[in-house]
Amino acid sequence: MPYVEIDFRDGHYTVRVLATPVAGPGVRYVEGRVYDAWLVHLQQSAVFEALWRAYDNEPRLMQEKLHEFTCVYPQPGCDLTALPHAEWRIVASTIVTNYKLGSSKYQGCCCGHTHVKLDDAQVTALRAAGFIVEHDAEVP
């Protein structure tokens, strides 16, 4: 399996394939099929610039504490009284009123900017009440 050294010193990502893995900053394991695709599509540098940025940032992101939260998406016919916060009920009512049938089922999270992580019992109750409920996370 290939290892690469990712270098960003000159302001853009360059990648050097390593014959043998060595310890050091910027050295990453690359899955074989990703490496093969890279070899085939070298001319599409913007795509792989994003890929190398992701590989380069991965260890840092894994060390940072993620902010975990739950998104609640109201659907037509859901029971708005099941929501745990009055503010969420107001936003959910607006989302359901303006719901566009035939469009995405994710037409707005009723949590707005007051995301919290709901426990399993709350998630189960909201799903039973007709909501789509999904956990998510972000780097603060």
Summarize this, please?
This protein is an alpha+beta fold and 140 residues long.
What features would you describe in this structure?
The chain is α+β, with helices and mostly antiparallel strands. It has two domains: 3-62, no CATH class; 67-138. The protein has helices at residues 32-40, 45-63, 86-97, 120-128, and strands at residues 3-7, 14-18, 27-29, 67-73, 132-138. The strands form two sheets. It has a three-stranded antiparallel beta sheet, covered by helices on one side. It has a two-stranded antiparallel ribbon with strand order 4-5. Strand 1 and strand 2 form a beta hairpin. The mean pLDDT is 80.
Provide tags for this entry.
single chain; 140 residues; alpha+beta; 2 domains; two-stranded antiparallel sheet; 4 helices; elongated
List the SSEs and their pairings.
Layout: E1 3-7, E2 14-18, E3 27-29, H1 32-40, H2 45-63, E4 67-73, H3 86-97, H4 120-128, E5 132-138
Antiparallel strand pairs: 1-2, 1-3, 4-5
Mean pLDDT: 80
Order of helices and strands: EEEHHEHHE
Count of runs of 4 or more consecutive helical residues: 4
Low-confidence stretches: none
Strand content: 15-25%
Euclidean distance between termini CA atoms: 33 Å
